[in-house]
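U., I forgot to send this yesterday:
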Amino acid sequence: MKSPSRRSTGSPSRSSVPAPSSTLPICPRTAQPVSRSADFSISTPTAPARWRNRHGVPTVYASLDELLADPGVRVVDIAVAPQAQSEIALRAREAGKHLLCQKPFVWEEATGEKLVAVADRLGLKIAVNQQLRYDEGLAAARAMVRATHENRAGDTQALFRIDGSHGSIRGTLGLLYDYPNGRPDTGRGQQPGLADGRLAYPVTHRWIPDAFLGPMASLLRAVAEDGEPYPSARDNLGTIRLVDRLYSSMDSGRSMPMGR
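Result:
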């Protein structure tokens, strides 16, 4: 990302995306055009020129070292295979870059803790691209109650439901009914006091591409305002810790504490 130019919103204006070509079409939806890009999977001399011409990106890097050495790049969106992400993230941290990482954030809890510690030491931000949290149906449900949702795999339907002490929220994840085109989610709340006991929420946006805007927008806002991105790497570590304890519990047949 180029050095932030402050607009009336106070947010950085352009982003750097070292990412596969499949992710680049999402970027124009943010109204913040990609200014710099890198592809570390190819090393032919003509590769940078091909990227520049194909996507209209002014600056294309041929290597990670070249990108990290550029002081004009402040935010890096990493989109690589999971096993390669940790090393790139650690190097980018030490180079003073804010990061948007893909999920899974790390393979091992200790690596994630190291990344978060380095970020805290350097005053840098890490967000994790859990874009489903910005899917409109789930975002609306989360705004109604602070709870989790359940999505059972292997069914012919893609449903979520949240039950609370004063009502419930249920809906569908529209993307999974016609992937990758999808349809808008549905959402309906039920609680005592409503006219017919239920209230439908008019969902108009879609998981792809609308929800993809959320993590990067949150990261840029956190950089501009010195806040915490959502979901942050620290938040994601809680998920990794939970999954690790679940597997350990299955292996041992015992309940496992959530502490480190």
